[in-house]
C-alpha cells in the first residue's frame, strides 16, 4: 500500500467492506496569476499543490453506487439509473456528478455501479479547488477501471460539467486542468480557449523561495452570489464590444470600451483584459528566471482584483499588504475571491516570520485566526 492510502483503505474496509480495486489521487491547486480569465477564454497560470484527494474505488457487478468520505462517514447510496444531473446534494454531488457527466459524454460507458471511499487534505471552501480534486480523482479512477480510454482533456471537461451542472457552480476550466496537468516544480500555463497546455518551470527552490498560502477562513461559495455576477458582467461586456469573449480584446481596445460601457462593466472588462496580458508577461518573465518582474505582476494583479473586479476582502488585502511590507517577492489573492486564500512568494527562511506577522495582524483586528502553510508545485491526477 502506498503512503497516504491507509486512511482511505481503512474507511473503505470499514464502511464498504473488503479491499478496493485501486487508489487514485488528484491534487488541489493555487493560481499564480490569471484570475477570472478562464471563463473569458483567456489565460491562467496555476499549479497543482501537494495536497490532494485520494479515492479508493471498486467496480460492482450491479447498478449500486455507494460512497463514503472522511468528512462525512454516513454512507450515501444511489444507483446508475438515479444518476441524473439534478439528483445530488452535499459532498456526494462531486463524485456522482462525475459519474453522470461520464455517462452523458460517452453513452452507456458506465454499465455497472461502484463503491468509493474519499479522503482529502485539501482544505474545503478555501479556494484551493477541493472540489476539482474530488472530481478529477473520481474521473481518472472510473476512466482506468472501466478502460474508457478518455483523454485528459475529455476528463477535465467532464469534471467541469459535473461542477457546472450537477453542483451548480458556473466555474471555468482552470481548476480541473491544474489538477490533471500539474507537474512537479512547474506551473500549468493554459490557454482556456484551445486548452493548449505548457508546463512552465518555476525554479522557486533554486531561487531559495517558497510559496506561502494564507487561508483567511473567510468562506466563499461560487454557486451563489458574486462569482456568477462577475461572470455575467464579463459576458455583457463582450457582447457590447462585439466579441465572442473578452479574450478577443487587448489593452488597445480599452479606450473604446470606456466610452461604450457603464463604469462597473468597464472595470470588470479592464481587469480581465489586463490580467490576460499579465499572465502572458508572467510566463515570459518566469521563462527567463525574472522572478522580480513576476512579483510586480502579482502585485498589479491584486490591485486589479481589488479595485476593478472588486472580489477581494479586507483579510486578503491585509495578507498582501503584510507580505509586501515584509519584503515578499510578490503577493496576491488567489482563486475566485470573496474570501479564501492569498499567496506570497517569499524567501524560504522568511516564510515563518511572515506567517507569524500575519497571525498577529489578524489577531489585532479581531479576525478569525488564519491558517498559513507552504505549498509545492506537484504532479497531477494519477493512479497510485
Ligand atoms: C474559481 C473557479 C475557476 C476560476 C477562478 C477565478 O476557482 O472555479 O474556474 O474562474 O475561480 O480565477
Summarize it.
With 384 residues, this protein is of the alpha+beta class. The chain has helices spanning 6-16, 93-105, 130-145, 152-167, 174-181, 226-241, 254-260, 263-287, 291-308, 314-325, 351-365; strands spanning 22-33, 43-59, 64-69, 72-79, 114-120, 186-191, 197-201, 209-215, 330-334, 341-347, 371-375, 382-383. The chain folds into two domains: 3-198, Ribosomal Protein S5, domain 2, CATH 3.30.230.10; 201-375, Alpha-Beta Plaits (2-Layer Sandwich), CATH 3.30.70.890.
What does this structure look like?
The structure is a single chain. By secondary structure, the protein is of the alpha+beta class. It has two domains: 3-198, Ribosomal Protein S5, domain 2, CATH 3.30.230.10; 201-375, Alpha-Beta Plaits (2-Layer Sandwich). Helices cover 41% and strands 23% of the residues. The chain contains eleven helices and twelve strands. The strands form two sheets. Strands 1, 2, 3, 4, 5, 6, 7 and 12 form an eight-stranded mixed beta sheet that branches. The protein has a four-stranded antiparallel beta sheet with strand order 9-10-8-11. The longest helix is centred in the C-terminal third of the chain and has 25 residues, at 263-287. It starts with 5 loop residues before the first helix and ends with a strand. The mean pLDDT is 95. The chain binds alpha-D-galactopyranose. Residues 31, 35-36, 38-39, 171-172, 174-175, 222, 335-336 line the site of alpha-D-galactopyranose.
